Prior knowledge:
alpha+beta; nine-stranded antiparallel beta sheet; five-stranded mixed beta sheet; 30% helix; globular
Amino acid sequence: MLLTAVVAAMPLASRVLMHPAVTYANSTHIDIERIELSDTATVIHFSAHYRPGWWVTISHLSAIEVDGRMYPLRRSEGVGVDDRIVFPPSGRSEFTLYFDAIPASATKLNYYEGPKNSYGGFHLYDVDLTGTADMQRIPADVPDTLLRRNLDVPCPPAVFADDSTVIKVHMLDWNPGLMDHVILTYESAGSYYVALDSAGRGECAFKPYFTTRVDVAAGRHVYFGSFLTAPGDSVMLYLDAKAGADFLHGDIVPPRRLYADGMYRDYNYMYDTDNTVDELYVKHFAPVFADYRQSSDSYTRRIIDARRDALAELEAMNSPRLVSEAGRARLDYELLLSALRHRDLCALEYENSHLGFQIPEDSIVPHLDSRHYADAGAIADAGDPRYLLFGAWSADFYNGTFDSPVYSDLSLFARQIKRAGQLRLTEAGIDSLRACGNPYFATICETIGRSVAGRIADGHKPRIEPVPDVPPEDIVEAIAALYPGKTVVFNFWSGYGGPVFRRASSLVDDDDLILINIADTSTSLPVFYDVSRHYDSPSYYIDESQALALWKRYRIDSLPFFIVAGRDGKREYGPHLRNLQLLKEIVNGYLCE
C-alpha cells in the first residue's frame, strides 16, 4: 500500500504521440506533428503549409476540448498569438502551442483556432490520443454491393430529361460535434446544403437538367469525393466522416470516403477505384504542359500525339469493358480540353512545380487559334454527349470553340441556361433553343426563368447597385472612390452567404465605415436576392469575367474574402482577414487613423 501511494504521488512521465490521427479537419493547411502529454502541460507541435508569401494567424482564443471541457491557450512558440505567419519559399512553417494538462484517461481531443463556433479558424476534431485509430478502416455500414462491382458493362449514356433527382445522405463514423450539414455542388444546378439529423442522415431533391457530376464537401476544404447522377435518379450516398484527415501529412491517394448507388453505380465505382486513364493522362499529357515556351503549333501537335499514344497504350491493356469504353471517350475529351485550356494548363503546371509561385501570363507562349482548334477537333468528336460524364459542363467546355452539330446545340444551351438563371433570356434566345435538335433545351430554360422570377418576386427588393463601367480589375477601386473619406470593407461571398453577411454586418457600427457585398453569377440570382434583401449594405452582382479579374488582382484563394480600403488609399486583404476578430481590430485601426 505504501509503494502504491508513493507511485501515485510521483509526476506522470511525458507521453509523446507522433503524427496523431485526426478524424476530421476543416482545413488542409495545418497538421499536428506531435503531442506531448504530461501532468503539467499539453504541448502541441504544429506545421502549417501555404503559398509562399501568404500568411495565416493563430488566434489568442485558441483552445483544446477534452470530454466537453475547454482548455485555453497558455503560451506559444514560433508565432506570437494573433501575429501573422508569413510563409517562406518552402511554403512550410512550424509553431508550438501550450495548454494545461488534460486527464491521463483522455482518448481524444478537439483543437479550435479561435472560438469553437468560428468560421475562419483552423479546427481539428477527434484527434486520437491512443495511437490505435485506424484511418483506413471502411465503415461497417457501407453495403457490400458498393464495395465490389463487375466493370464488364458498357459505358452509360448521358441523360436529358425534365425530372427530379433524390439524394439521401448517410454520414458514417460521425458524431454531431463534427459537422451539421454537407454541401452538394452540382455542375448544372448550383449548391444545396443537406442538414444532418442526430443519426447523421439527410435528404434533398433537385432538377439536374442532364447527367451531372456532384461534388460533396463539408466545412472548409473538406472533400468527400463526387458521383454522377441524372434526372429521374435516386441515390443513396454513404459518406465517411474521416474525409477531413485524408490530406493531412501529404497522403497522395486517400481512401474512398464516398460510396454512391443509383443509375451510375458501376461508373461511380470505377471512377473511385480505377485510375488507369488518370495515369495515362499524367504520363502523356502532363509533359506537354511543362513547356510554356513552345509554339502554338508545337503544343497542338504534342497534345494530339499524347492522345494517340495514351489511346494505343489503353487499347493494349486487357481492361474491363467499362474502363475501356469510358477511357477512350475520356482521352478524346482530354485532347479537346487541353486545346481549350492550354494557357491555364501551362500556368498550373508551372505553379505546381515551382512551390506555388505563379508565372506571368505574358510569359506563356502557346496561344491557339481557330486553326489549332480545328486540328484537335478533327481527331475527336466535340459533340460526344458522354463528355458530360467527365465534367464537361463545369469545365466550360461548351463555350463555342469547336465545330460539331451536337456540340453547337449544347454550347447554345450552356449560354442560354445562364441567361435564364439571371433573367436575361429573350424570346430570340428561346426561339434559337427550339431550333435545336433537342426541344427539351427550350423547355428547361423557360422553366428556370419562371422559377427564378417567382423566387425573387417575394419580399422587398435588396439594395443592388450597378457595377461601375470600368475595367474588371478596377471595380474595387471604382466602388471605393464612391465613398471619399470613408473606410470601405469589401465582403466577397458565394452560394450560401447568410452567415458571412451576419458576421460582416457586425462591423458596421460607425458612420465612417461602409460595407460592400459582392457576389458573382456563380451564385444564383435567387440566392443573391434572398441574402442581400436582409441587409442595408450595398450589394453588387458581377459576372464571371469580372470575378476572375478581381480574383487574379487580389489573389483571392477562396470565399469569403475581405478587402479593407482605407481613406488614405491603403489596401489590406488576404486569408487572415477571415478571422473576424482580427478583421474588426484592423478596421478599427483604419477608422482611428
